[in-house]
Each structure stands twice: as structure tokens, then as C-alpha cells.
User: What shape does this take?
Amino acid sequence: MATPNPVLDAAGVNALLRKAFPDAAPVAFPTVTEVAPGRVKVVAAYREGLLRPGGVISGPTLMSLSDTAAYALVLAHIGDQLMAVTSALNMSFLRGAVPGDLHAEAQLLRLGRRNAVCDVRLWTEGPDRLAAQAIVTYALPQP
Assistant: This one.
């Protein structure tokens, strides 16, 4: 399968995400930093309140960033189709995510007419020390 080309750059995806979630606090919302054919990179700035007991970033925070990164990836490749919705999210927690900015890299595994399947990898220490990995499926809007 050929890798699809994005139709939006990082600024365009960030603008769409702000349009989709106008009430989200800018400081708390992840930022798309890179868009390339079949992939995106997203960063969520570290802030107080993300930690769970034990001093690592909470699972719900990791799951939220996985979903946001997959949504950003889908939007980057299909454009202004805000009604794309999560239909499945399978999360694997690999190690504790130490406090720090949370990074996600999402890659398209399949972009079809009805759904998109994305592989999302998350880390705080570096991409060679993954904290979590998710497979996220998005149902795409039909005409």
C-alpha cells in the first residue's frame, strides 16, 4: 500500500483541533509539531495534575493523547472532516511515563473509505523508551 500524502500541515491540523474543541484550555491542549506522509508528531506540555500516585503520568492522560494524536493523523490526511470518530482504542502500558513533556508519534497503518487504523507510540524520556503504545481505529464520515 502506498503511503498517503497529507492534505494539511501542522498549523492546519492545530487550527482544526481548536475548531473541534473550542473550549479546551490552550495550555492543556496538545500541539501537532510535525506532519509527514502517513504520520504525525504531537506534544503535550507537562503540567501539575497529570501524575498518579507513584509519580508517573496517569493512564487516562496517555490514553487521551493517543486518541488526540490519532485524530490529528486522520485529519491531516482527510482534511476538515471533524465527524471522524474513535471506534476502537487498544492501549498497552509498557513502563511508567516519568514527569516531562509527553510525546506521541502516530502512523497510519490503513486509510480506507470507512475507517483509518493508527499506531500511536508515546514517551517522555525518548522514543527508544516507550511508555505506551496504542492501536486506534477511527470511523470516517460517509458522504
